[in-house]
């Protein structure tokens, strides 16, 4: 179990890397929303592999088909089933991995938990599962845009230790690493290619932001906005940390520095700074939501590594196959999707906050 | 809504800082577990305020009473209701705060969301709510200890920029800041007292660990162990970041460095290093679980700050009252409790993983 | 687990018959609702034992105390914790029942499931648990009345085979059995007293209705209004059947008879008849909601019965103690509460049905 | 929302009557279970339309394809996605129904709730949705059979007032109405054909039973076995009532008659009679589970009926199309599926009942 996310705007993903298809069911999308395959495909195309020299060469068109829940261009309130068929699923490369555990991967833990696993391409634990998250995120984006003008976007802030120094939102989708600083982007691409050449991989930091979020989203004390964002982001493959606003940097600030003072702007309550990253006490405060994710270096590296197999032998393994030397650029659309899903759910939940 | 945590081992907290009582209901604790008020009180005493010069002087005995679910010393499978009555709830100090928003606190967002709020001591948003989490965590601790020998502990790793340099687990509860390094602890106490004198506050980093966790806990793809830990930890008041294993440091490592190689130890699969912090693909791998939390400096500072009130006026406020100049030492038992709750839930869920 | 009801308007009950107290936590009641202990007590007083010669002589004041979630007379959106302390819990009578299973009761099944049980007064399985349902139902009633003018009421339709023949809503609370027909009520009282004298018990049929329910409540395909009503009603102790509208009688009707034809009344869609009991396809249609419950004869009878004990001996038992010779009159407020809880939850869920 | 059923063994159905496909995702099926398309198809074939002169002539092969969660013949613990493509979906007949509400159907309530609906063949409200329930039920059947030897079966007990008088389990699938009494079956077929000729429809009573259910299933106080059965059964299209054991007949019994006395059979606790239908206090007691459903006469009748349309006009309608003059025979496999799903979920939940 555990493949469902959300309470009211609720998604369930299914499918394995090398099975016939993968998909997602969205249950709880309100009726009357304009949705099309094109709209969803737009977000999916940003997630696709085979996009450039810095990502996996696996070719997947990832075309979405809407199987239910949309009638004559609008949602009906019924579950929305989205599917894509796996095309370029070359399983033969995985045959040698049938009984051996790749370090850094979920092979061992799935085997330990379930006793029986689909080893092909990581099976269920493959990042291919995020297709469904991004597809559902596109629907959430349309909902939030339509009903509240909320906009969510993400980008690579740091990669292989190279930090972004300027910010131009338009730049994000112009370069291969999705960094809003073209100079840093160039260095990042070089770092990825260098790692690739060395049969290695690199990590980085992805930032996600949301604009125009109204005050009031979040359901304390357990389902705080920050808590559910933490849940959403740490569920993305390769993410090992998440911080809100100043995050870890706040631990070295003084209280009077970190507190965001309030003022009025045309009668609206605003804060002078935004160290809190757009939320207080687990509820959005109307400022920009700012979240950062720590993305580990990809686990699939061709260098030989020590490992063991299911028969209780120690082995040495080189993970061949088609992998991303850095997953950061492809985490960008997934991180957006997860924040969109969180906000869509809280947006609907908030309708029940007052009589 | 949103006051429930967990699926099978499920808790619901209730109560306001200055109401007559606060409490928690645990639904789903298996029958047959030995539980007593003393056992729960032991954990609660570590959370209490009024413990030392570095914490709030508010005096609360925080005595737990078991109202249900335990019969002749053992759980019956029925909901366990735990309660404590608020004693030293001096609300008069809060009267001036009835209509004004303290910076860094949830006053504004609760007001924006609900339209009507209990302003006394932060009402529902008070850290006093964590009493219920710690009480329930003590029951989870007893469960995990009894059925699996799992042990969870936490400590302050860094405070006001002062880092722990040695580790002695026995030391943790010996000093006022719960740091396992007595030399660093002394400096941390000094830093807190200095901040207090300056009507200010400081933050820090808390680390939580779990030993003896068997492989298999976690329910991917959404309810991964890391994801639910993120949810649990970012729901603790003042926590602004969470990382697993190497966390943010992993972003500057290479893949071959970060991957934990496997080997066999008496037939058991182990990893040479533990950069992953005890989990792979969202499932525990049998190594130590390692989680770190970024704790912001306490928001209640006596220094004057700009703010606004509910009537639409800009104001200046000094937050008097009885506060912790650093909440880190008191986050320690809460962080333990949250990890215990996560593990107890996954432990029970894992019983359904195989036929 | 399993002590929680509802998704958005969500209650968790706790407590045993002879423990120190029983209670309920309501999580998800919208903020801004006027609530008082008096308002809740009004519904609780209708549920109380010790009311008359036809109910159990156990004396419980059942006074409710609001412990949280209400501030200056209005809900705050925080969990509402309600408690009552058990006063007249005479456990000594239950000592002989510590190791023996009363026929028709949950003694054996709780023992088989949990291995350890509170035998006193049925422990958790006691109908005393319904206190929390009725208390929470009173809050749901206030919500539905305030926001939508919805009114719910119930009554005894049949008892010991004696059927109601006239209907006067005002009559319901005037007689001891809560039957809207005073003539039938008199016969029912006589039947109960006769059964009591014979150390026996009788069953009957309770009907619950809701007026002014707007069209649109219910969440198909699984959480249909009828389905969730079935769930709610079959969870009431002693209820062994539930039907909607014509219910079992519909099985002998023809389709053209059973279908409720539509017409317009001042522009509003109405049905000529109401065989469907106010719902179509799992969603309310704006007509009166009509539900009937089959209530079995109370299981506690003083007549000797064959049974077994936990030591594997066959025994003969006479269930002494203070019991209701018919539980029907006391099912009335519980059935109301459950329908109120269902409707409150669906009312809030329905706010997310459209963009 | 509302298309998910179950807590641990959890299904989500999706799809409309005349959309491209319908399906179901099962999340939480334990790993290691032998599953095949043939096994699932076996149950689906019993649900299919176009089977005989007493059911709808719509032709659907209803072939199931397993898209995920099964690898080399066994479940992996990942979500199991099952799909079938709609073949014979003749939507043209529904064009005249685009803006008019069929009496007894969900047309009006879906329109009132969602404001936008797929009118073709009832869209989401079509009984075609039960395909996913039956497919998932087949997996639950395999689970329960494998781990506990539990067997579930259902049959038509009464139809158009004609009651079954003998019981031969082998007979059930031999006749067109699935009645275990061949003589009654013949009369039932005649009654259906007569109703069909008269452009009308008939209802009946379906009974579902489960053998070999161990004591302990059910999670009181809210998620009692009876309560969740009520939820499951009243969610089946056309079901208007449900009863357990003696059900409504118990209301006219005396307590000493209705109570099932306990005795020992080879050390196992048994009851002499089974008026309770296999459960006490919401938990299975080891006896046969017995549930009966009231099935209303099908709403689609060709006779002219009064109705209204979405433009606010009163109209007269004759529901042409391909319908079942009695849905009872096809409720049989759906009722089995729902009981299987309930039991599978409780079976897994019960693993967490004790330490």
What name does the CATH topology of chain A carry?
Chorismate synthase, AroC fold
What is the straight-line distance between the termini of chain A?
Answer: 35 Å
Quick one: CATH superfamily of chain A?
A: Chorismate synthase AroC
Mean pLDDT of chain A: 95
The total of helices of chain A stands at: 7
Structural class of chain A: alpha+beta
Largest sheet of chain A: 5 strands, antiparallel
Helix content percent band of chain A: 25-40%
Which secondary structure elements does this structure contain, and how are they paired or packed?
Four copies of one chain form a homotetramer.
Chain A: E1 4-5, E2 10-15, E3 21-27, H1 37-47, E4 65-66, E5 70-71, E6 74-75, E7 80-85, H2 107-114, H3 130-148, E8 151-159, E9 162-163, H4 182-197, E10 204-211, H5 225-233, E11 239-244, H6 255-258, E12 262-265, E13 268-271, E14 279-280, E15 283-284, E16 289-295, E17 305-308, E18 314-317, H7 328-349
Antiparallel strand pairs in A: 1-2, 2-3, 3-7, 4-7, 5-6, 8-9, 8-10, 10-16, 11-16, 12-13, 14-15, 17-18
Helix pairs in contact in A: 1-3, 1-7, 3-7, 5-7
Describe the overall structure.
Four copies of one chain form a homotetramer. Chain A has 355 residues and is an alpha+beta fold. Helices cover 25% and strands 22% of the residues of chain A. A five-stranded antiparallel β-sheet of chain A has the order 1-2-3-7-4, with helices on one face. In chain A, helix 1 crosses helix 3 and helix 5 runs antiparallel to helix 7. The longest helix of chain A is centred in the last third of the chain and has 22 residues. Chain A is globular. Chains in contact: A-B, A-C, A-D, B-C, B-D, C-D. Chains A and B meet through strand 1, helix 2, helix 5, strand 11 and helix 6 of A and strand 1, helix 2, helix 5, strand 11 and helix 6 of B. Chains A, B, C, D: Keywords: Amino-acid biosynthesis, Aromatic amino acid biosynthesis, FAD, Flavoprotein, FMN, Lyase, NADP. Chains A, B, C, D: Pathway: Metabolic intermediate biosynthesis; chorismate biosynthesis; chorismate from D-erythrose 4-phosphate and phosphoenolpyruvate: step 7/7. Chains A, B, C, D: Homotetramer. Chains A, B, C, D: Its cofactor is FMNH2.
């Amino acid at each position: 179990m555990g493949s469902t996310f959300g309470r009211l705007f609720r998604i369930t993903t299914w499918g394995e890397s090398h099975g016939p298809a993968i998909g997602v069911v969205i249950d709880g999308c309100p009726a009357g929303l304009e949705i099309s395959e094109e709209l969803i495909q737009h977000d999916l195309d940003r997630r696709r592999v085979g996009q450039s020299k810095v990502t996996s060469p696996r070719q997947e068109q990832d075309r979405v088909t809407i199987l239910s829940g949309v009638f004559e261009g609008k949602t009906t309130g019924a579950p929305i089933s989205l599917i894509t068929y796996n095309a370029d699923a070359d399983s033969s490369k995985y045959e040698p991995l049938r009984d051996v555990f790749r370090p850094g991967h979920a092979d061992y833990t799935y085997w330990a938990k379930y006793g029986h696993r689909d080893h092909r391409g990581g099976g269920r634990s493959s990042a291919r599962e995020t297709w469904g998250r991004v597809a559902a995120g596109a629907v959430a984006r349309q909902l939030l845009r339509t009903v509240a003008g909320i906009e969510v976007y993400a980008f690579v802030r740091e990669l292989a230790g190279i930090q972004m120094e300027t910010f131009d939102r338009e730049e994000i989708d112009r370069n291969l690493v999705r960094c809003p600083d073209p100079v840093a982007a160039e260095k990042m691409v070089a770092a990825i290619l260098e790692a690739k050449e060395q049969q290695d991989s690199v990590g980085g930091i992805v930032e996600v932001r949301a604009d125009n979020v109204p005050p009031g989203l979040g359901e304390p004390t357990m389902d705080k906005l920050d808590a559910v964002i933490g849940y959403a982001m740490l569920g993305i493959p390769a993410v090992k940390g998440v911080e809100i606003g100043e995050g870890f940097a706040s631990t070295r600030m003084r209280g009077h520095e970190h507190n965001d003072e309030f003022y009025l702007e045309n009668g609206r309550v605003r804060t002078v700074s935004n160290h809190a990253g757009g939320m207080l006490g687990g509820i959005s405060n109307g400022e920009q939501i700012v979240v950062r994710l720590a993305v580990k270096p990809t686990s699939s590296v061709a260098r030989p590594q020590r490992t063991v197999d299911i028969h209780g032998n120690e082995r040495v393994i080189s993970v061949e196959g088609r992998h991303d030397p850095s997953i950061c650029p492809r985490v960008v659309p997934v991180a957006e999707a997860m924040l969109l899903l969180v906000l869509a759910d809280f947006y609907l939940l908030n309708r029940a906050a007052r009589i």
